[in-house]
Amino acid sequence: MRKTVIITGTSSGFGKLSAKKFQQEGWNVIATMRNPEKETELHLLDHVLLCQLDVADNQSIKKAIAEGIKHFGKIDVLVNNAGYVVAGVTEEIPEEDIRRQFDVNLFGALNTMKAILPHFRANKSGTIINVSSVGGKITTPFMAVYQASKFAIEGLTEAMQYELNPFNIKLKLIEPGAFNTNLGTSMSFTPTKNESDYKNILDKAMAGYAKWGEQQQNPQEVADAIFSACTDGTEQFRYPVGADAIQILAARNQMDDVEFKSMIAQTMDL
Question: How many domains in the chain?
Fold first, then answer.
């Protein structure tokens, strides 16, 4: 019998690749996105149901889950992939942008989990995969708002294990490094003014990120890791993905706070 996964944010990037991966592996896929009418590829695949879902809209979350259950009968796995990046000088980022970041990256994932948990508890099984980031474990310049949202999803997911494991519901985190997806192009970046005290260090940091972004890591690695986390049958909780993520997390584990801050500052020429 085919298992069923519901994935948020499947219009591009990790989400679309994950939808294809699960479908190729013989799963039913509920591929959700804000504008499914614009999708030109996934709806052509067998055993794929497209649903409208905006993680900032609770009603659309509940509707998509209900449609998926009605269509396939049961959902076995939730992949919370939808998210985006707010970056810039924290002092200068508008409050509404900061709230929107948490509405999508934290509350969107939380509300999707809350909406599907009654179904998982009734089935006495389920798996939740939350796509975090290497930025949920380490910090870098001018990414404070984004990384705070990812630190939050890490803590939320880890703590919820105690509540949900007794119902045979597993939770896992995917921690990608820098990959060639549209996440960077969809970034909400607050530019600073030329007279800003921050301009010099911001320019240096952005040059550092540009070099980091030149790494041509294949985003299929992340889709494969998401599928593996669902199916490996282990208690592994965190899945760092990408050579850069593995390397920097290993360095963080070996350094104290001062050493790590110094390393990042030197990398960014700050």
Answer: 1
Phi, psi torsion values for 2, nearest 5 degrees: -70, 140
pLDDT tens digit sequence for 91-125? 999 999 999 999 999 999 999 999 999 999 999 99
Residue 33's domain is classified under what CATH number?
Answer: 3.40.50.720
For residue range 66-100, what is the model confidence (pLDDT) as tens digits? 999 999 999 999 999 999 999 999 999 999 999 99
Nearest by Cα to 84 from 193, 204, 181: 181
Domain span at residue 141? Answer: 4-198+217-246
Average pLDDT over residues 236-246: 95
Decide if 263 is inside a domain: no
Q: Is the pLDDT of residue 260 over 90?
A: yes
CA 17/CA 233 separation, integer angstroms = 22
- Count the Cβ atoms, other than its own, within 10 Å of residue 90: 16
Catalytic positions = 132, 146, 150
In our burial notation (b when 16+ CB lie closer than 10 A, e otherwise), range 115-140 reads: bbbebbeeeeebbbbbbbbbbbbbbb
